[in-house]
């Protein structure tokens, strides 16, 4: 009876707030961004995309963040846009663009299905580590729509036009292991191993010089957009720039002293 009384007293209360659409937790040089709308399969609605853009702005400015991990709560990584939305409204924040614009390395921890704009979110990251239960699909064209979020452009650069067209035109669902064989995913692990595998990768990256990580990301990211000679020139220029930093000098000192480097991002 006591339980029934509690139920009656709580019946008129307003439901608890669902909390932030994207949770942000920073520790030991790693920013953990979690898509936290499992009840909607982490749909890319205005709230989630806005929260993602805000989280990206925060971690970009944070001097204590060297690496970013994007993960999701629930069985689905992201089911893409809300039902009935063919394209985000112009007023919606560009969460995918904010993610891709981060100068710090971003790891996507994909535990389940990544569909449509959810797939685009994963492609906007630098590395993708997937559970064997994960899958990737662009269902838009078979439904009379077009993929967005940069998916067609990043995918073609990643796997070539023939494979990209198979996914885009046919809407073929790509299991995690096949995604790895195509180069979309860097590693596939059992579901129970995903969290520790991603955490280990993030920790290893966080021990490295943040300036070197950012410049290396820039060099590779611009490679396909530049003629080879210009790309090699950029590579050299970035090397020269890194040589002028305190982090580079610390790297040399720590090597000679046979100790771990203490990088400060300067």
Main features:
single chain, 266 residues, alpha/beta, 2-enoyl-CoA Hydratase, Chain A, domain 1, Lyase 2-enoyl-coa Hydratase, Chain  A, domain 2, 2 domains, six-stranded mixed β-sheet, three-stranded mixed β-sheet, 11 helices, 15% strand
The CATH class of the largest domain is identified as: Alpha Beta
Which of globular, elongated, flat, extended, rod-shaped describes the shape?
Answer: globular
Count of separate structural domains = 2
Return the string of H and E elements: HEEHEHEEHEEHHEHEHHHH
What count of helical segments does DSSP give? 11
Annotated CATH architecture of the largest domain: Alpha-Beta Complex
CATH topology descriptor of the largest domain:
2-enoyl-CoA Hydratase, Chain A, domain 1
User: Distance N terminus to C terminus?
Assistant: 65 Å
Helix content: 40-55%
**Assembly category:** single chain
Which radius of gyration do the C-alpha atoms yield?
Answer: 21 Å
What proportion of the residues form beta strands (DSSP E)?
A: 5-15%
CATH superfamily of the largest domain: 2-enoyl-CoA Hydratase, Chain A, domain 1
Record the strand order, biggest sheet: 1-2-3-4-6-9
Mean pLDDT: 87
How many E-type strands? 9
Task: Give the uncertain stretches in residue-range form.
Answer: 1-16
Structural class: alpha/beta
Largest sheet: 6 strands, mixed
